[in-house]
Design brief:
There is one protein chain. The protein is α+β, with helices and mostly antiparallel strands. It folds into 2 domains: 32-287, CorA soluble domain-like (Beta Polymerase, domain 2, 2-Layer Sandwich), CATH 3.30.460; 292-353, Methane Monooxygenase Hydroxylase, Chain G, domain 1 (Up-down Bundle). It is built from 7 helices and 7 strands. It has helices at 76-85, 90-97, 154-161, 172-207, 211-243, 251-317, 332-353; strands at 32-38, 43-48, 65-71, 104-107, 112-122, 127-137, 141-146. It has a 7-stranded mixed sheet with strand order 2-1-3-7-6-5-4, sandwiched between helices.
Length: 357
Amino acid sequence: MRKRLVKKSLKKIGASPGTLMHIGEQRMEQVGIQAIGYDAEQLQELPIRPEDAARSCLLRGKPAVTWINIDGLHQVDVIETVGKCFDLHPLVMEDILETEHRPKFEDYESCLFLVLKRLHFDEAKTEVRPEQVSLILGADFVLSFHEGSSDIFDGVRDRIRNSRGKIRRMGADYLAYALLDSVVDSYFGVLEKLGDRIELMEEELVTAPSPATLRQIHHLKREMILLRKSVWPLREVISALQRGDSPLIRETTGIFLRDVYDHTIQVIDTVETFRDLLAGMLDLYLSSVSNRLNEVMKVLTIIATIFIPLTFLAGVWGMNFDFMPELRWRWGYAFAWGVMLASAGCFYLFFRKHKWL
């Protein structure tokens, strides 16, 4: 089924700002909530069921940093409960539930709100599937909301549990950086798979282009449009986060944000390169088809050129006149064959000399 470039919004027209309504696909059967509190010396993990979402506040302020992660956005009451626990603005909760946002950054003074896009590559369908990831950075907490599973953050969880690196000694802003970096780094895996597919298509275009190849080109061009919509605004998001004057982000964390910004520019450059390659593939396809047609026409032209004089000679000696000297000649048949073979041989040698064969 063809993916829509512009999706219809399910939000009721005229609804008041801050109205909570989930807009998007249900990607999880049940909402999952993970709560982690940590500092340099201690670590606490609290399993929370969706019906007990209010327990998300229990770790706040006890260890130095609290991280609440929520997988699945279809249960509006869970998002509302967690939002009230951490005093989130109603517009923030509304944007979390509306999954068709472009990547953006907003400063609410008491917290920073980021909307990102996580990308999956479906190799069977050759499709890029985006999922919305929302991050909220407070003074001593980070909230992360996913449409689907948050396995992309498993590396960050492992670093916290095993106290690897400096994450346990840093604040909530460093945790937000680590989560943001995980999202950006995941783009490289998607781009690598897309690059392999584009290289295979280039080889196919040169060797054996077909109408199926043309359909694949148009399909990948649409995927690159969707990919660009998910990645391009991310540069503005990280730039605003890096250059902002929010007290929630320390100067030491700003250095790491610059590194994420560099990775984002690299991702965008790769996306633009792929778009240029796909834009030129249509011309390459038409050129390949034209070259194949020229090769076929050359062979047919050579065959026709060789047989034209033979047809002429056969037509001359095929006329039914009574007074044709070759008709009664004993060696006339052999002579006709000799002339025809000699004529064909001369044309063949001529074509070989000019490397047309």
